[in-house]
Structures are given as structure tokens and as C-alpha cells.
Amino acid sequence: MQKFTQLTGVAAPLRLMNVDTDMIIAAEYLKTIQRTGLGAGLFASMRFKDGQEVADFVLNKPAYRNASILIAGDNFGCGSSREHAPWALADFGIRCIIAPSFADIFFNNSFKNGILPIPMPVEIVEKLMAAADNGANATFTVDLETQQITLPDGETIGFEVEPFRRECLLNGWDDIGLTLRNAPSIDAFEASNKQSQPWLWASAS
Fold it and tell me: pTM of the full predicted structure?
């Protein structure tokens, strides 16, 4: 998993509440288990109509096409538990989402896929939205090490991330990565177990 330490990028304001996972990535894109290529289908029902881009959708506007931060409304990521939703966001280039609240499963899946979701009070989100309205000049810096967001005008706003999740993102540890940290102990156990209970390993040899 890609590490998240500090991110500087354009923030796109998505002024919608209850953005569900079907809006993020529609069911027709769920046939693959590959994490790449899904960015093309991100918000497809809002980005495209009859095969053409919808000009006034925020991520189609020239200033926000390369946005890496998304500022959204309450209850982001609600709906089904599809992990393709954070896959699609990450593949598009979104590494951080700021919203008043998140659906629990989406929130957990984001951390496991290198995306930093930051819950903020509504009044702070509105302030960030207003700053993000400045288009390509809406460059924010999100620093996970110091847990601070720096706005385009230099103002800083603090945030908190649960220590274990923060450590995992800073080091790029997903569930597999966490397991592999214990690889020497796992190997030692297997070697010992093969000696003490060889019949358990007969079919593996």
C-alpha cells in the first residue's frame, strides 16, 4: 500500500450529502478484482451523460481534473460495502477526503487502501469548501505526521487520526503488510511445527 505522509494538491468541492458507494462506482464496474483502471468509472453517472462529459460536474472542470483532495458533504460513502469505491477514488488520484461524517465500512476500507478520510465539523468543512472554490488556486497541504491541514492562505487546521490507523498509513501497511511484519516469527513457527507435527505438513511437501 502506498504510504501517506504529506499530500499537497488541489481540493475539489463536492457539495453533496449522502454520496453512496453506487454513486462513487456503479455496479457495472464491479466485475473486476483489479484495483487499477477503475478511476475511469469514478462518479460515472454524474461525470458523463450519453457518453459525453458533463461540463459542470466538479471533476470535469479544468481546475479540478487533477484534484487529489475531495471535500464533501455528510455521510460520505454510505450504501453497500464495495471496496471498489476506495479503489476507484485512489485510481483517479484522490488520496484524502474531508467530510463531516463517513459511513463506517467505507471509512475503514479507505485506510486499508491508502486513502485518508478526515471527519471535520460542518462549519470547518464549509470553510474548506469555500477555499476550494478558488479552483486551481485551491492548493491544500494535508500533513499526517503533524495532523494539520494548511489552507491556500496559510491558515492551519488540526485534525486527529486514531494512532494505529495513522501509523499504518504513514508506513504503508495494509492488512497483508501488517502480517508480513511478523514473517520471521511465522517462518520460525512453521519450521518448529514441521518438526513436532510432520503429519500436518505431509500434503504440502
Answer: 0.86
